[in-house]
Specification:
Layout (H helix, E strand, L loop, with lengths): L1 H18 L56 E6 L13 E7 L4 E6 L5 E7 L2 E6 L7 E6 L4 E4 L5 E5 L5 E7 L7 E2 H6 L7 H8 L3 H9 L2
Antiparallel strand pairs: 1-2, 2-9, 3-8, 3-10, 4-7, 4-9, 5-6, 5-8
Helix pairs in contact: 3-4
Length: about 220
Amino acid sequence: MVVNTLACIALSAMSFFLASASDPSPLQDFCVAVNDTKTTVFVNGKVCKDPKVATADDFFFSGLRVPGNTSNKVGSMVTPANVAQIPGLNTLGISLARVDYAPYGLNPPHTHPRATEILTVLEGTLYVGFVTSNPDNRLICKVLYKGDVFIFPEGLIHFQLNVGKTKAVAIAALSSQNPGVITIANAVFGSKPAISADVLTKAFQVDKNVVDYLQSQF
């Protein structure tokens, strides 16, 4: 009897932890974000507009119809559709992003600290993958074609590479109104102020000249 009770308590605690590990559930039909916080209190997310004055534009964004400019070093562009673009997403725990890829363009290794991602290929052929956490660091990858879907678990490093000779387009759905993004190379070699070369030479087991060169690229 005691064992069963303890098991129930453990399961309840685990359920609470899992439930609290993502965006909180909305406490009303919607909570439209406002940027003026001078006369409001801090909340987990953004403060809310009075529902009575919400309009259709609070729930609308046309930006994903426009192809992103891929004329950059990596040959890709991410166009987000999160709470910053759609105030009506506040408290709803979801967002989207459009990703455009030039031929052989790369969405470089990155993580979303607050969201799992589900990617759908609309056009082109993508080589995608993610790396599991320590100590295994196992690469799980696949080539995707138009209509294919792939999952990137929350917090894990992942990437997409256009392996076709033509442009590619994908839509990503994310399990947070503000998933965040940390591009690994930018964070490590382009931080402000810069991470000490002593740290990076030891971490990557390379000469200081290599670290200096990589930091100069970011």
